[in-house]
Design goal:
The chain is α/β, with parallel strands linked by helices and 369 residues long. The chain has two domains: 59 residues, DNA polymerase, domain 1; 264 residues, TIM Barrel (Alpha-Beta Barrel). Helix content is 31%, strand content 19%. It has eleven helices and 14 strands. A ten-stranded mixed β-sheet has the order 3-4-5-6-9-10-11-12-13-14, covered by helices on one side. The protein has a two-stranded parallel ribbon with strand order 1-2. Strand 9, helix 5 and strand 10 form a beta-alpha-beta unit. Helix 1 crosses helix 2 and helix 4 packs parallel to helix 5. It is elongated and about 70 Å long. The chain starts with 14 loop residues before the first strand and ends in a 36-residue tail after the last strand. The chain binds iron/sulfur cluster.
């Protein structure tokens, strides 16, 4: 992993504890005279017990606890609202310190739940089918703000149906914010902390090739790629990132992506009637993916107000799946959930407050078309 950045602080200068790696927390505690055991208890308090206030934390010296209260903060986000759709999907709206609203979506399964989290406020990638794209990019989330979405959701809902899967498919292009996202994946998978299986933490990208390579080298997370087209012409139009990193470059990065045994890259393919769902697309898609260990998730487009794009019929989606399978491509259909709360794929897009300031970025917007 690259060198650690200085810890994020709030406007009062307090350190955001969930922005620290376990090693950085140990060093921070050590610098204040605390023992490694105290650091381990604080780490467990943050992630195992999901405490909102470390004053409740047993076994930590009172002086260290006082310094924690003075110099550090537990939660980086404030929960603003929870909206539940008829199918049990819950949209969690969080407020950042600077007044922006970001969203996570909790999708319950039979025994476990998946949490879809955001990595940026808005998004710069401009994908044609996506509601979030209409916000533009308002700023990056910090590691603490990314991790906090999972901690607060687990605190609220985790015991009845544990959150065992986390997908970076909410607002933002995670690989446009790798300096915050990659450390967050380590905290999510830390066995002493949130202890998510690295097979169940998935970072989804629109196709930022250099950052895909960095993710493969530096993160335990799985990779998902939003492909959505089988020619450069269509993908250039649907996903402007393709003009910088066309299909050949993207597929080359997928071929080189390091995979563990039995692991596969997830290829997301949003089906848009008349645009990328034709017989030729099936043939080309099977050809493009040949030699890549992957599985395809088909998602019927979920229309949003003002979009001219159309959803194909369910029968057509089933036929597309059957034809891909016939060509040896592992293919599943992903049901969109939470339509009622506007929490299905590509629909995370509540506008930030009109006066919410844009955050300064430390990274250039390398792939913005
Ligand atoms: S689909 Fe993803 S990468 Fe594309 S604009 Fe929407 S949030 Fe950004």
């Amino acid at each position: 992993m690259g060198g650690e950045r200085p810890p994020a602080r709030d406007a009062d200068g307090r350190i955001l504890l969930k922005g620290l790696s376990r090693e950085a927390l140990r060093a921070w505690v050590d610098a204040r005279g605390g023992s490694p055991q105290a650091a381990a208890r604080i780490w467990a308090g943050l992630y195992r017990h999901r405490l909102a206030d470390l004053a409740e934390l047993p076994g930590v010296d009172p002086e260290l606890r006082r310094r924690l209260a003075d110099e550090a903060r537990v939660d980086a986000l404030t929960l603003d609202e929870v909206r539940e759709a008829a199918d049990g999907t819950r949209k969690l709206v969080f407020r950042t310190d600077d007044g922006a609203l970001i969203e996570s979506v909790l999708i319950p399964g039979d025994r476990r739940a998946t949490l879809c989290i955001s990595s940026q406020i808005g998004c710069a990638m401009g994908c044609h089918f996506c509601l979030t794209a209409k916000l533009g990019l308002r700023g990056d989330l910090s590691t603490a703000e990314i991790v906090d979405q999972v901690v607060i959701a687990r605190r609220l809902f985790g015991d009845a149906r544990p959150i065992s899967n986390v997908v970076f498919m909410g607002m933002g292009e995670p690989l446009h914010n790798p300096d915050a996202v990659i450390p967050a994946t380590h905290t999510l998978c830390d066995p002493e902390g949130l202890d998510l299986s690295s097979r169940r933490v998935t970072v989804s990208t629109s196709g930022l090739v250099p950052a895909i390579e960095r993710l493969g080298a530096e993160s335990p997370a799985r990779l998902a790629v939003s492909l959505n087209a089988t020619t450069d012409a269509v993908r250039d139009w649907l996903m402007p990132v393709n003009r910088k990193y066309p299909l050949a470059a993207l597929l080359g990065a997928l071929r080189r992506f390091p995979l563990r045994a039995r692991d596969r890259i997830v290829i997301e393919y949003v089906l848009l009637a008349g645009i990328n769902d034709q017989a030729d697309d099936i043939e080309r898609l099977a050809g493009l993916l040949r030699g890549i260990a992957c599985k395809v998730n088909l998602i019927a487009f979920n229309p949003h107000p003002g979009s001219e794009l159309r959803r194909p019929s369910d029968a057509h989606v089933l036929e597309f799946q059957a034809e891909l399978r016939r060509r040896g491509v592992a293919t599943a259909i992903r049901r969109t959930r939470g339509d009622e709360a506007m929490a299905a794929c590509g629909q995370l897009g509540r506008a930030p407050a009109a006066d919410a300031p844009r955050r300064r970025r430390s990274l250039p917007i390398a792939a913005t078309p």
